[in-house]
Amino acid sequence: MKTFKRIFLTLFIVFMLNIQTIYPQVGFSNKIDSLINLVTTQSISRLDRQLSGDTATTIGSTSYTITTRHYNSPSNPYAAQYIYEKFQSFGLSPRYQSNSTTDINVLAVKLGTKYPNQYFVICAHYDDMPSYPSNPLAPGADDNASGTCGVIEAARVLSNFNCDYTILFAAFDEEERGLYGSKAYSDSAYLHGDSIVGVINLDMISYDGNNDSKSYIVTNTNSSLFADDVISAFNVYVPTLNPIKFFSTTANSDHASFWTHNWKAICDIEDEDDFTPYYHTVNDKFSTLNLPYFLKMTRSAIAALVSFSMDYKMSFVHTPIASGPSTGTRTATVVITSKKKIAKLTYAPRLYYKINSGAFTYVNASYNNLDTFKFNIPGQSVGATVSYYFAAQDSLNQFVCTYPAGGKGISPPGTTAPANLFVYQVETTTTSCIGSGTATVSFPFNTYWHDSKANMLYTASEIIAGGGGVGNISKIGFNVATVASLVMNGFTVKMQNSNLTTLTGFVQNEWTTVYSGTYTVAGTGIQYINLQTPFYYDGINNLLIEICFDNTTYTTSSTVYATSSSGKTWMQQLDNSTGCSFTAGSAQSNRPNICLKMDLLPNSVPNNLSTPNKYSLSQNYPNPFNPSTKIDYSLPKQGYVTIKIFDILGREVRILISEFKNPGYYSVEFNANELSSGVYYYKIQSGEFSEVKRMTIIK
Questions:
Q1: Distance (Å, rounded) from C-alpha 243 to C-alpha 293?
Q2: Which of the residues 68, 108, 167, 645 could staple to 654 if both were Cys, CB 3.0 to 4.6 A apart?
Q3: Per-residue confidence at 3, pLDDT binned at 50, 70, 90?
Q4: Which residues form the domain of 412?
Q5: Residue 476: inside a domain, yes or no?
Q6: Residues 495 and 389 in one domain
């Protein structure tokens, strides 16, 4: 057994506010929970002490001490016989697979009741180091008596438990020489046409020097989703363990023999950064092991194995309900799929919800067709925050899943809420129109020129008088008098909350870009531009708007209606230049009439009386953490802010913040209860500012 060289994939991040994703998860079963509790510190200690020569055992009716399990030592065949007899004592029918005079695998099968020709494999290598005869003593208590104990314990507790899939319990020999035993088995299984669904390889699962309960789930790309399922099972049944997924292409343990035939396989191993210092030495003894960690690793592996072999898994597809102005009933649609039949009559899926910080209540589905369920959440008043989650169990009442993951409770399902929830707010939408004049102006759609730029200032009193207030501007509309068909390229809309009362030139700083791309005026009357990024208006300052474009051709201009308003507009137009970079221009006597679509917010209150002078994103603290941490950030100006969490593969796993904020100092708490251990990244985006930092979850 060699240490792994970690290969982390490049982080690719796709930024989306709402995304529909398939979320698979392993469910919770009281039966599995009871089963893994049959594994005790005493049971694994006894096995490890006997395999590592810490104490004598009985092999073939004779007392024997296994002093070494090196492949060419006379003691190693006794180790194979010890494992064989253990399997046999559980009522299994083991067999030896002799691959050479020194390479002997020990195999036992528990036949599946539903899919007998499809296999899940739990395996470990039993040979150890250092070499014999130069070192006649090689305890190998951690490497790898511990993994072998895990396999033996799995065979013991499952000997009287019927699973849907066949389970192979495998103890491989000569891993230390170069995966000889596992390669011989996987090659023969491939030639026989065996169907291996997944492999859990246990290699060194008992040393934890710093007591952080961290383990690595080693995977390749093909096995990545299987690794996710393993971690999901670990988190459900042994939440105090901290599994971390990482990729390695090196063939350093027996799972790699299965990779060569494109079977899904992972290696469960102790923290490489807290590796046993007794690796491959005569001091790898039972006395060096961390027994509570050893117990967690063994129980979690068995829980995952049984979960897979029973298909205790569901997948959820749901687009979260977005915050918005509707005070009426909101419908949450979810698609729930599982190989097990989902309960649809008694103990049918539920949606639990609560208002603000109140207690949870539930609703049953108002609609069900095949796997699709629709739940109606009663309408709420403006300002309400609604939190919700889904829960479902199988028709035989054997396991339950919630979405988001982490909830428990069966018959009825999901009575214990998960730590994280879906959340939306009830906002109110209004339209604030400013200006009623009948004069016409050619800006901001001044396509008689190649390039144009306009700054327009609207006061807070005008916005409030028009029906606006504190909130998020989602659209800006102009009352178009005449239409030109030319596409405006490089069309950009920017906004800012401003304390300016008049314009004497173009404002160069503090802008938030809310639209960027192309735009064509569609027709006459009020024509709205849908902002790509809604803009937070604070209700106190004036609103400054910039519109510009950069063309290489021209037509006539689209004109808009305007009202006389001195000192509120600045404009420039030229050919063969770059409109959005104009710095000259002149004052205009008429200002375009506008309408603003706004989602009013009930409480938008400055977070801090002092205002930062720059953007910042602080390192989360504590770091590493379990399960919660805090992230501090500062905003020098108002704007739409997102803070998102991504895993090591660049997949978005959480949106912490997605709203408009005033200038100020902020702190957000991140609870990672449902996430597995590992390295994650968090990114803040506000206007043109963005920053990414790394964090580590250890459980």
A1: 12
A2: 645
A3: low
A4: 313-426
A5: yes
A6: no
